[in-house]
Amino acid sequence: DEAAAQLEANMDKASLKTAFGNLMNSDKDLLSRQLESLLSRLDESVENHDLIARLAAQFPGDVGIFGVFFLQHILLQPGEAVFLPANEP
């Protein structure tokens, strides 16, 4: 809760790193329950609902599904590229 509040208040790189790190190291049982809850409420009003549903089908129970809420999802066409500096999500 503290990391989420810090991220919401600051929206800076350090807060993002802390919140994402906490997510990736969360209790597996808690993550499983939260993922079940998310998927039961998933509908078209949730941004990226198709991506979340696809990831949940391909990687059941994986914490990375929550990464959708931290990262920008973009679609590239053949020949396009994106540059991400080191240590940038």
UniProtKB/TrEMBL annotation:
<protein>
    <recommendedName>
        <fullName>Phosphomannose isomerase type I helical insertion domain-containing protein</fullName>
    </recommendedName>
</protein>
<dbReference type="Pfam" id="PF20512">
    <property type="entry name" value="PMI_typeI_hel"/>
</dbReference>
<dbReference type="GO" id="GO:0005829">
    <property type="term" value="C:cytosol"/>
</dbReference>
<dbReference type="GO" id="GO:0009298">
    <property type="term" value="P:GDP-mannose biosynthetic process"/>
</dbReference>
<feature type="domain" description="Phosphomannose isomerase type I helical insertion">
    <location>
        <begin position="6"/>
        <end position="71"/>
    </location>
</feature>
<dbReference type="InterPro" id="IPR016305">
    <property type="entry name" value="Mannose-6-P_Isomerase"/>
</dbReference>
<dbReference type="GO" id="GO:0004476">
    <property type="term" value="F:mannose-6-phosphate isomerase activity"/>
</dbReference>
<dbReference type="InterPro" id="IPR046458">
    <property type="entry name" value="PMI_typeI_hel"/>
</dbReference>
